[in-house]
């Protein structure tokens, strides 16, 4: 930002240099451990409860449609996480039909026992170099569903080639799980690998609408973000009572009549 001194008593003017936002290549990595089949507190039209995986699919479709409305040049690819990471659809593209087709192959696995993010970070770093060569940014959005399994990885903090966002769906704390420890481990992972400001959002309420609100926050472009500590949305929509019109004064009535 540059300041231009005005002449005479005119206030100074500021000009903001134009910067180009890079197109995004966004890699969704969905945790398909057995905990992704935990039921949410909402049901479909057939009366069957949604699972976390059902709600995740809804959220990703909302994200992709919205992101393409913002910029049709954004591209998407998909991977799954069980013990390690596997490609679901490797080629980045903007075809919504391709996204829906990829979801047909998205299903939960048996309990994995561990979650190794090393391969995810290696894949992302490799793809990030290809994206950078095209003047683009790579972002990874990890959707994690395990309440008692901390992810592990081998990575050096010097390698920051992509941005990592995390959406963490978990059970409420109990004697058989430790979601706070898992959350803390995810925060460390995010801070270790992220090139730009990465966001980590979580929900233990089992509400699909909370997941959808969170996924909308992740629509923000990494180059335009503020620190997560300063993010104060989405705000709760508290219903306020309507304001009663103030009783008109005598002067008000006279003015109204005079204006007829």
From TrEMBL:
It comes from the Eukaryota. Transmembrane segments: none annotated. It is found in: Cytoplasm; Nucleus. The keyword DNA repair applies. InterPro entries: BABAM1, vWFA_dom_sf. GO terms for cellular component: BRISC complex; cytoplasm. Keywords: Cell cycle, Cell division, Chromatin regulator, Cytoplasm, DNA damage, DNA repair, Mitosis, Nucleus, Ubl conjugation pathway. Its main location: cytoplasm. GO terms for biological process: cell division; chromatin organization; DNA repair; positive regulation of DNA repair. Belongs to the BABAM1 family. This is BRISC and BRCA1-A complex member 1. It comes from Trapa natans (Water chestnut).
């Amino acid at each position: 930002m540059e300041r231009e001194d005005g002449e005479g008593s005119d206030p100074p003017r500021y000009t903001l240099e134009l910067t180009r936002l890079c197109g995004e290549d966004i890699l969704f990595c969905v945790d398909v451990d057995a905990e992704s089949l935990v039921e949410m507190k909402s049901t479909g039209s057939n009366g069957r409860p949604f699972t976390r995986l059902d709600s995740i699919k809804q959220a990703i479709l909302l994200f992709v449609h919205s992101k393409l409305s913002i910029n049709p040049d954004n591209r998407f690819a998909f991977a799954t996480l069980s013990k390690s990471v596997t490609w679901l659809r490797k080629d980045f593209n903007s075809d919504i039909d391709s996204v829906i087709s990829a979801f047909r192959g998205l299903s939960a696995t048996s309990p994995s026992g561990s979650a190794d993010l090393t391969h995810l970070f290696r894949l992302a770093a490799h793809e990030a170099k290809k994206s950078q060569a095209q003047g683009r940014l790579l972002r990874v959005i990890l959707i994690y569903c395990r309440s008692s399994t901390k992810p592990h990885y081998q990575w050096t903090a010097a390698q920051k080639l992509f941005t990592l966002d995390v959406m963490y769906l978990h059970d409420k704390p109990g004697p058989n799980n430790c979601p706070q420890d898992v959350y803390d481990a995810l925060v460390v992972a995010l801070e270790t690998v992220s090139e730009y400001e990465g966001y980590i959002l979580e929900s233990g309420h089992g509400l699909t609408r909370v997941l959808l609100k969170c996924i909308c926050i992740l629509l923000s472009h990494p180059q335009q973000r503020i620190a997560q500590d300063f993010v104060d949305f989405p705000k709760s929509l508290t219903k306020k009572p309507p304001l009663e019109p103030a009783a008109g004064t005598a002067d008000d009535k006279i003015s109204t009549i005079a204006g007829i």
